[in-house]
Amino acid sequence: MIHRGETVAPGIAVGPVHLRGFDDEIAQQRVAADQVEEELNRLRGALQRSRAQIEEIKQKQQGSLGEAELRIFDAHIAYLSDPMLVAEIEQQVLQERFAVREAIRMVVAKYDRIFQLVESDLLRRRASDLRDVATRLMRNLAEDGRVPIVSAPTGRYILAASKLTTADMFNIENERVDGIVAEEGGLSSHAAILARSMGIPTLTGIRDLPRILRQGGVVVLDAGAGELHVELTEAALTHYAEKAQKWKLASAVVPEQQSQQHETRDGIAVKLLGSCGSPGESELSRSFGLQGIGVFRTELPFLAQVGDGAQRPTEAELVGQYQQVLASMAGKPVNFRLLDVAAATLDQGQRNPERNPAMGARGVRGLFLHQDVLRLQLRAILRAAAGHEHVAVLVPFVTSAQDLLRVKSIVMEERVALRKARVLTTEQLLVAPIIEVPAAALVLSSLLVDADFAVVALDDLQAHLLAADRDNSSVREYHELLHPALFDLLARMARDAEKRERELVLFGESAADPTRMPFYLGTGYRAFSIAPVRLRGLLKVMQRYSIEECRRIAVRVLEAPRPIDLQKVLVSIETD
């Protein structure tokens, strides 16, 4: 039986299930007056143990995670040391005589409701961090034997959790976690960022896990395909175990072992670039032999902040991180995507909440409202890129050429200011729009007049074109619909780019879909920004087809009048 979910981090894992986090709602409700002091002592002990655990985990991960990822743990320690939060929990115990577990649950639920009412992804991410902290507290409170704890299987296992949290990902023995499946958890949460950085196959959005899974039962987690397989035959388990082993070996490839030849069967070169969001992920792109970084997401240093008085990363900190990324790529192209404030809304309290943030001040629109942040990033990139070639700035959520020209003007202003201050900068910073708004896709030809190249954010473009949020499970079938309009638009953009002699980079999970790759190649796409672990799958497709064969496939796809006809074409290609 197959259950479908949302891919957080791709990969394949096979192993026994360990169910965690489904008893956290169990509470003892109220306690007697003579038990209040004991409950407060339990809270203090759990806070102390939680802080010590996070410090130890942070220390253990120093060699495998980058500085920005490690700051996530600092944010969690800050919550555990927040006197206001601790005081609210203590008041629930002292005044209402709630058991400490129930007090924690109530206080976190209150903050959760407040954060969710404010349409800010940053505040929602803070709510996720607070839930992570509460989960760890609950785990430590359970150690006194009042709440039954199910022991993890011996050896490596697949974690099945109610929520995707760092508390479950990072235990003292977390090295045994081979994969993660969760009922809830955002794709841009800190837990998701860490899962991708560590290369742990992770899937979210599958409901009723305690009903469909049993403790210790062996399952297959094919996170790249968005599938959880249960009740498999021995033959099927053996098959997937071999695939999982191959995936692990591919993930561990060192540079000299990875072929640098990225071309079709008939020798046409294809540029395969990495998509990443931290220096650690950029190292992974290099080790897999990718030809540069097509999209480097710059949100993480901003997301790692916590609390109302949190400080943004300094210019020096950003310069250091960007230099680290550029150094890791050793002269290969690196494209830095500017902060997308839909993913990290800044200073939300200074303006009225938006009713529909997805159609509001996100991307470059939000950066124009917070020009101090825009200029901070541009200065840091200009400084970090000094002495490097092939460095670009990607402008998110562009609608018209005016957006692009404003950013280019600010780049010039900041370069002049840095020169006057005798600060070394690059002279060759490229600027390119990210095409995710259908209007921008339709006027791509005019945009390319003022752009050095363009990046097509395929998943977001598809979501906007089909009016279906890719993170909303209730409309997943609409987002995944193989609609002819999308393929027509992609073919049109490829023709426009060819006429302007500009490169188009295709970016997103759908860009790495092997079934669609022949269509992309057949319509003229020659550059792709992908997760490093998707490289081998695309290389196999490229080695299978010639460009002429891909062109014939593209014609068949574009002639398909309905989604069902288009699906039949792609299925027939896959089985040829």
Which key features would you list for this structure?
8-stranded parallel beta barrel, globular, alpha/beta, 8-stranded mixed β-sheet, 16 strands, TIM Barrel, Enzyme I, Chain A, domain 2, 576 residues, 3 domains, Glucose Oxidase, domain 1, 24 helices
Structure explained in plain terms:
- This protein has 576 residues and is an alpha/beta fold.
- The chain folds into three domains: 126 residues, Phosphohistidine domain (Glucose Oxidase, domain 1), CATH 3.50.30; 122 residues, Orthogonal Bundle (Enzyme I, Chain A, domain 2); 260 residues, Phosphoenolpyruvate-binding domains (TIM Barrel, Alpha-Beta Barrel), CATH 3.20.20.60.
- Helices cover 48% and strands 14% of the residues.
- It contains 24 helices and 16 strands.
- The protein has an eight-stranded mixed sheet with strand order 1-8-7-3-4-5-6-2.
- The longest helix has 25 residues.
- About 2% of the residues have low confidence.
